[in-house]
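Lab notebook: predicted structure, single chain.

Context: the supervisor wants predicted structures on file for every construct in the current expression panel, including those that have not yet been purified. This is the next one on the list. No modifications to the sequence; it matches the entry in the shared construct table.
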Amino acid sequence: MKKNDSNKSEKSFSSSSINWYPGHMVKTKRKIQETLNLIDVVVELLDARIPIASKNPDIDDLIGNKNRVIVLNKCDLANDEENKKWVKYYNNLGMKCILVDSTTGKGIKEVIEAVYELNKEKNDKLIKSGVVNKSIKLAIVGIPNVGKSSFINKLVNKNIVKVGNRPGVTTSNQWVRVNKDILLLDTPGVLWPKFEEEIGLKLCFTGCIKDEIIDIETISYDLIELLAKDYKKMLYDRYKLEDFEYEETMELLDKIAQKRGCIISGGRIDYTKLGHLILDEFQVGKIGKITLEKVDEINV
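Prediction complete. Output recorded below exactly as produced.
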């Protein structure tokens, strides 16, 4: 919340107040690096709502020149037109990019086809040298809570990997058989040591950073401020605000709190409850199909 708002938290989002790179991530990164020399194709999962913010910049160095498929996961939660623009953007960079909804399985078949296609040249060489029936080793990489476990379960058509709506569900490398040709390595989600405040906010909005280490009131304030600017109609429709006019974001938050019953004794607003409600509804798409990063706003 802003400092001049009464009865609100004065805490702000800052890199110094959030421990987003615990020691286990250093160990995880090292394990991934050690294992990648066995890998034929890498599938990098990004959140379709924040394709840039959800990309770990360290991954490029880890992957090197290995064949790669970019998966824009949770595409069902993102704006359809922006999804198309992001696919074109990555294709123009020479990367195979596929929209995936790991809940319904949309795009899963295309991912498997892309893996075969990217490994074809290597496989043909192996066959010529007399090596047959060698499994394609596939690695799945991405930041925490980008949906890797749900994606893998759809890929293998089984609930073989533990799934949760909180970051950090996968804690170690796991080998999983996709089919007779493909052996998959699931890796834990890894963040990186430092990122700009804008990136950090987007990661908080989409649930990639645990609730326990963020100021839920401040983050929900910033999200509402952003949505009121870029997705006002969706926001107003969701919370039935109709022709409500406001000058400050706090007025908008207070109105939403009244509409949704986030009130405690004495008629005061429960901003913690309100913050969780807003973030939860955004993260599952109840406010609408929203993309927070647009191709037109970056330097291409």
